[in-house]
């Protein structure tokens, strides 16, 4: 678990204000105190407060209007993921048309993971799931490491049974909201364990995609590392230019 004291101050402040909104201390349609009053109440700088307000606006909890103040709009956090979905082309379709098979699972420290997990200390504990993904249930097209926090361990029993991305399972089961996904792509020499699972020779060259899923408090809750043989995978991205 991520140490609370490692979180940025503005996120801790946002969490405190969310609790006050959800407890009706700041009721819906009411105005929040002024900026100086909030800074004094929570003993924070204006910069920290403004960053927190920005986060709360992105969640759909508050609205700022020039000369009027900050109004509480809702207790429920708005899911912004749909706007970001095009950043991961055909992710749902890919999952629905393929089969995930769990090979192994266990516990690991963040410092031992194949990916550098943001906002995580080297000794933070994660669950790692080793799996393969196949289209025809015979020839695997990908080898995967999936990292989740221990508090989400009950989701493991659903993997491979439901053709839904793991981040979506966690959203539904635990009320998490995904607000952004960071993606990294690189070529690499495929690790021996992955090469064996993929039926490849040692030192084969492959393609790695790492995705970090961030929740509404900008904390990583799922990391997926996927390794693909180049002759079994094609990645296509379409970019649409804005007129603005």
From TrEMBL:
Gene Ontology biological process terms in this record: negative regulation of DNA-templated transcription
Stored InterPro entries: Bact_HTH_transcr_reg (IPR050679), Chorismate_lyase_/UTRA_dom_sf (IPR028978), Tscrpt_reg_HTH_GntR (IPR000524), UTRA (IPR011663), WH-like_DNA-bd_sf (IPR036388), WH_DNA-bd_sf (IPR036390)
One Pfam family this sequence matches: UTRA
Keyword terms: DNA-binding, Transcription, Transcription regulation
SUPFAM superfamilies per record: Chorismate lyase-like (SSF64288), Winged helix' DNA-binding domain (SSF46785)
Domain spans labelled HTH gntR-type: 7-75
Molecular function GO labels: DNA binding; DNA-binding transcription factor activity
UniProt-listed PANTHER family: MANNOSYL-D-GLYCERATE TRANSPORT/METABOLISM SYSTEM REPRESSOR MNGR-RELATED, MANNOSYL-D-GLYCERATE TRANSPORT_METABOLISM SYSTEM REPRESSOR MNGR-RELATED
Annotated protein name in UniProt: Transcriptional regulator, GntR family
Originating organism: Polynucleobacter kasalickyi
